[in-house]
Design a protein that fits this description.
One of its GO terms (biological process) is methylation. One of its GO terms (molecular function) is S-adenosylmethionine-dependent methyltransferase activity. The chain has 261 residues and is an alpha/beta fold. The protein has one domain: Vaccinia Virus protein VP39 (Rossmann fold), CATH 3.40.50.150. The protein is 41% helix and 24% strand. α1 runs parallel beside α2 and α5 crosses α10. The chain is globular, with a radius of gyration of 18 Å.
């Protein structure tokens, strides 16, 4: 399956807004000192880059991203002179050896085909004694806004199970993440769960991002026929928990991992 990652504004509504919350707590967990050179691999629309600028007093931040559409939005949003954005991917990061003191990647690692190569590249770009870290959604467990979607989709269409990110991305588990980081030669590897609230104002706020086609679950939804999509919408609307004001109160977990170069 090819995951469509075009349409930066649609991505913002789907997961960008939640990535910002998760990124803030991820950086709090890292607790890095001021004045570092940062690399943000798979920076997307700049959600994590923006959090680094706001909370970590960096000397510099380089955001690396393959999508020109995402890079354009990130560049419009973040104009801090310490930040630069460059096009590239995880398997060939366009930075020199030891160019960063802290290399991070948010919600991207599972989409990189050659993860061993990506970790080798992150380690290469990080100075000796520096930090390499990442976080990914807990697709199979507590990323509830996605988990609810796929559970409903599979109940109506058993074939959707093959597209479910909880099955497709076994690396999104603490044991797998720790093993990946250790196999890259990183030391002092640790993993932690970070939970955030993901409230939706109403059902339309929850449902509309799934119509964009941007990302695996929206891609599946957009590919359905009208009757199938309406059945999925109805099943979700019936099953999602709402408060008296119609808000949908869900939570999401990311798994965070770090190691020293």
């Amino acid at each position: 399956m090819m995951d469509k990652w075009l349409g930066a504004d649609a991505y913002e509504m789907y997961v960008g807004r939640w990535s910002r919350k998760a990124g803030r707590d991820f950086l709090g967990w890292l607790d890095m000192p001021d004045g570092l050179r940062w690399l943000d691999l798979g920076c997307g629309t700049g959600a994590l880059t923006e959090q680094i600028v706001q909370g970590c007093a960096p000397a510099s931040v380089t955001g690396v991203e393959p999508s020109q559409d995402f890079l354009a939005l990130a560049g419009r949003r973040i104009t801090d002179p310490r930040v630069r954005f460059v096009q590239g991917d995880g398997e060939t990061i366009p930075l020199g050896d030891g160019a960063a003191d802290c290399a991070v990647s948010g919600l991207v690692l599972n989409f990189i085909p050659d993860k061993d190569r990506a970790l080798a590249e992150l380690r290469r770009c990080t100075s000796p004694g520096g930090t390499v870290a990442a976080y990914v959604w807990d697709y199979a467990g507590h990323a509830q806004f996605m988990r609810r979607f796929w559970d409903a989709a599979v109940a109506l269409d058993p074939g959707a199970q093959a597209l479910d990110e909880g099955r497709r991305f076994p690396v999104c588990h603490p044991d797998a993440l720790e093993a990946l980081f250790r196999s890259a030669g990183l030391g002092e590897v640790t993993c932690a769960a970070i939970d955030i609230a993901t409230p939706f104002a109403d059902f339309d706020d929850y449902w509309t991002p799934f119509l964009s086609g941007v990302g695996p679950a929206p891609g599946y939804c957009a590919g359905l026929g009208e009757a199938q999509r309406e059945a999925l919408r109805a099943r979700l609307e019936q099953g999602l928990p709402t408060d008296p004001d119609g808000r949908i109160l869900l939570a999401a977990r990311v798994w965070a991992v770090r190691g020293s170069s």
